[in-house]
Amino acid sequence: MVAVATRPEALAPAAGASLDIEAVSHAFDLDGALLDVLDGISLRVEPGEFVALLGPSGCGKSTLLRLIAGLERPRRGLLKEDGRPITGPHPSRVVVFQDPTLFPWRTVRDNVALGPAAQGTLRQQRARIDAALDLVGLAKFANAYPHQLSGGMAQRVALARALVNDPDILILDEPLGKLDSLTRLTMQSELAALWRDKGFTAILVTHDVEEALFLATRVVVFSDRPARIKADFKVDLPFPRHRGDPHLADLRRRSLGLLGLDASW
Questions:
Q1: Among 173, 174, 220, 188, which Cα is nearest to 71's?
Q2: Which of 44, 145, 146, 175 is deepest in the core (most CB within 10 A)?
Q3: Rounded Cα gap, residues 62 and 66, in angstroms
Q4: Does residue 129 contact residue 112 with C-beta atoms inside 8 Å?
Q5: Segments making up each domain of the chain, as ranges
Q6: Measured CA distances, 123 to 38, 43, 69, 106, 114 (Å)
Q7: pLDDT of 107-159, one tens digit each?
Q8: Taking Cα atoms as reference points, which of 92, 63, 89, 80 lies closest to residue 20?
Q9: Are strands 76-81 and 84-85 parallel, antiparallel or unpaired?
Q10: Are 210 and 243 in contact (CB under 8 A)?
Q11: Residue 85 pairs with which residues in a beta bridge?
């Protein structure tokens, strides 16, 4: 398990990249008809920021992540990493999905080593692979297979597989969404600790308002599809955060109100 500090501490120097999203619109072609998904999204993310994207299910958040990753090209607008246009996938931008997608016939170490193996640098990167496993608390499980892991452990493997590539931007598409509630709370703390330690830029899509506020330095709230930005605010609290903080409760009420879910709060 990743050690989580019990007192406020300074963040690591920002090692991540900046991200510029400039008037990005996107649509899907469904049987010859266009379904608008994103409508004029403009956003600037500074190096080392942790930005959470909130919005109704199906509004286009995950589509925006795919555009940031370079897995698709926007129909209109431009995305840039450190001032350079994003035209396709790149090792500097790594995605962690809700499903860990581990190869069942490969050990934990071999799953984490997929990136270096594909790049032909496995021999040179063995120390980095060991460091990534140690960072997520799985050094003792290096020779285990996915079926021998819990859900939380499998997601740690996915995080280690991403971190071994030393990404400038870590793209998180509901990575904790399938975990049980207790494991999810633990993994939130561990993910925050990893971000503080490494200093990468993080972009998180989540449907969990408390998760967004616990992890992010900034929250962006989207409208229904086609997504437009309804609100963009900072979470001005030190790390590590405490879930009972009254300011977090205020921000939760504000966020739920923006999502139209504040009636019961």
A1: 173
A2: 175
A3: 6
A4: yes
A5: 19-92+167-258, 103-165
A6: 43, 39, 27, 17, 12
A7: 999 999 888 777 776 677 788 888 888 888 888 999 999 999 988 889 889 88
A8: 80
A9: antiparallel
A10: yes
A11: 80
